[in-house]
């Protein structure tokens, strides 16, 4: 794999070949974290860019054109040490921990990556080489995610959230709309399951 080049100044190594972004759960949060992917891809066009998430979030990133591989962590099928081994085997140069819980902090710390970026959440700062001040209550979730890139010197040139449904997704929606008699009718979506006031 050729060495990636940085478009503009970055505190990340110019020879970065493998990058991991961690956002384990909450499908909406996984979707909002994808805003970092196109910016990382523009800065490191030839690097492998993987995303670690749990099964519900996997479909959000699996068909994303900037993602090299979606790593799926199923807590029922893979132990904590197994997850760490899975990540270490891939030899990441840089890990962005956008989730910041104790498990992802530990995985980040033991990933083998020289550059580990995460947020100042209690004692978890031990895991990171670059610590980002969290602004979760003061900014939109997309900016919270972009803060990690900006702290690492990765240029943010695209602030658009994009979702890339697969052909199977499109077929399923089409079949549902047909069977429900809703095809061609205006639709309104309401999410009554959000867990945070934001």
Q: Can you describe what's shown?
A:
The chain is α/β, with parallel strands linked by helices and 198 residues long. 33% of the residues lie in helices and 14% in strands. It has 7 helices and 6 strands; from the N terminus they run βααβαβαβαββαα. It has a 6-stranded parallel beta sheet with strand order 3-2-1-4-5-6, with helices on both faces. β4, α5 and β5 form a beta-alpha-beta unit. α1 runs parallel beside α3 and α2 runs parallel beside α6. The N terminus is likely disordered.
Strand content: 5-15%
Structural class: alpha/beta
Helix share, percent: 25-40%
Main sheet, how many strands, which sense, barrel?
6 strands, parallel
Which strand order does the major sheet show?
3-2-1-4-5-6
* Uncertain segments: 1-10
Order of helices and strands: EHHEHEHEHEEHH
Radius of gyration: 18 Å
Task: Give the number of helices.
Answer: 7
Query: Would you count the extended β strands for me?
Result: 6
The global form is: globular
Distance between the termini: 41 Å
Mean pLDDT: 88
